[in-house]
Amino acid sequence: MPAPCAWHDRGVTLQDSPFLRACRRLPVDRTPVWYMRQAGRSLPEYRRVRADVPMLEACARPDMIVEITMQPVRRHGVDAAIYFSDIVVPLKAIGLDLDIKSGVGPVVADPIRDADGIKRLRELEPDDVSFVTEAVGTLVGELGPTPLIGFAGAPFTLASYLIEGGPSKNHERTKALMYGEPELWNDLMRRLSVITLEFLKVQVAAGAGAVQLFDSWVGALSAEDYRASVLPHTAWIFERLGELDVPRIHFGVGTGELLSLLSEAGADVVGVDWRVPLDKAAQRVQPATALQGNLDPAALFAPWEVVAERARDVLTRGRAAEGHIFNLGHGVLPNTDPDMLTRLTEFVHEESQT
Ligand SMILES: O=C(O)CCc1c2[nH]c(c1CC(=O)O)Cc1[nH]c(c(CC(=O)O)c1CCC(=O)O)Cc1[nH]c(c(CC(=O)O)c1CCC(=O)O)Cc1[nH]c(c(CCC(=O)O)c1CC(=O)O)C2
C-alpha cells in the first residue's frame, strides 16, 4: 500500500502539488490522479464505518467525514482528496425534507413545482453547515500537502432532483418547467446558485484547495437549451468563485455536444466523461482550460492488461490538453475491486513520469 503522500517527504508544499499545478496548466513531473467517488462503497473500510450510520447522518458528522475522506488517500496514494458529502447536503441543511435511499439515491418528500415551493429555498448560512467547516479544518491538517477538493451539485442537477422528487430518466417535469415557465425556472436556478456558491465558499474558507461543480445530468439538454437556461447560472457561480483564487472544475455526464459551452461557463478545468477522447475534447473547450478524465469506470472490470492499455491511451490523448488530471469518466462503481484502483494509480504515476 503506498504511503499517503509519497512526495510529502521530499518537502513538497500544497501549491507545488501535481494536482494544483496541473489545474493551473503548469508543468508537472507526473500526471496527477484522483477518482470521482474514490471514497465510498468500493472500499471495505467505508462499508465498515458506515454499517450502522445512515448516509445523511454520516455527511453531518465531522469524525465520519474526516475518516471516509482519508480512506482512499491512504489506500490508493491518490494526488487529491475529495470532501465526503453528497450533492443534496446543502439542501438538507436549509431544512428541506429529503433522504438518500439505498439503491435509489436522493428522494425529496415534497417536490418543488411551483412558486410556493420555490420560496422554501432560503439562503444557506455558514452556521447551517458548521460541521463542514469543522471537518474541512481537520482534513487539511491531516492531508498536509495533498489538496482537498470541495464540491457541490450544480443548479440544474439539483433542480431536477427537487422537481422530479428523485432520480429521473427523462427529466420531464424539470424540462416542462424550464420550457414552459422560464420566470419560475430562473427564480429556482438563481436560488440554487446562491446556495451552491455559499456551500462552496464555506469549504474554501475552511481550507479546500480546489472546487468541483457536478452538473451530472446536464447532458440531458440540447446545446441551445443549455445556453439559454443553465449557462447564465453556472457562469454566475464560476465568476464569483473566481474571487477565491482556487482552481474550479466543472463536470457533467454525456456532455460531448456541450463541452464548449460548459467550458464557456468559466471553469479552469473541464471534466470529461468516457465518451469523448481527451484529444477531441481539447479542441472543444476554451483556450487556457485543463482537462480531467476520462477512463470508462466499467473498464476496471476488465483484465488488468486492458485497463493498462486504456489508461495509457487516456494519458497519450491527455497530452493534447493544456493540463491533464487523470480520473475516471464518472464515479467509481460500487463493485469495483479497490486493488485495481491502487494499481491504476501507480501505473499512471509511473507511465507519466518525466
Ligand atoms: O446507489 C445508491 O444507493 C444511491 C447513490 C446516490 C447517492 N447520491 C446520489 C446517488 C445517485 C447516483 O449516484 O446514482 C446523487 C449524487 N451524488 C453525487 C452526484 C454527482 C455525481 O456523482 O455525478 C450525484 C448525482 C449523480 C446521479 O444521480 O447520477 C456526488 C457524490 N456522492 C458522494 C460523493 C462523495 C464521495 O464519493 O466521496 C459525491 C461527490 C464526490 C465524488 O465524486 O467523489 C457520496 C455518496 N452519495 C451516495 C452514496 C451511496 C450511499 C451509501 O453509501 O449508502 C455515496 C457513497 C458512494 O458513492 O459509495 C448516495
Description:
The chain has one domain (6-13, 40-286): TIM Barrel, CATH 3.20.20.210. It is α/β, with parallel strands linked by helices and 354 residues long. It has 16 helices and 9 strands. The protein is 45% helix and 11% strand. Residues 1-9 have low confidence and may be disordered.
Descriptors for this entry?
354 residues; disordered N terminus; 16 helices; single chain; alpha/beta; seven-stranded parallel sheet; binds uroporphyrinogen III; TIM Barrel; two-stranded antiparallel ribbon
Write the layout of secondary structure elements.
Elements: H1 18-23, H2 44-50, H3 55-58, H4 62-76, E1 81-82, H5 89-93, E2 98-101, E3 105-108, H6 115-119, H7 130-143, E4 148-153, H8 155-164, H9 172-180, H10 182-206, E5 210-214, H11 223-229, H12 231-241, E6 248-251, H13 259-264, E7 269-271, H14 278-284, E8 290-295, H15 304-318, E9 324-328, H16 338-352
The structure holds uroporphyrinogen III.
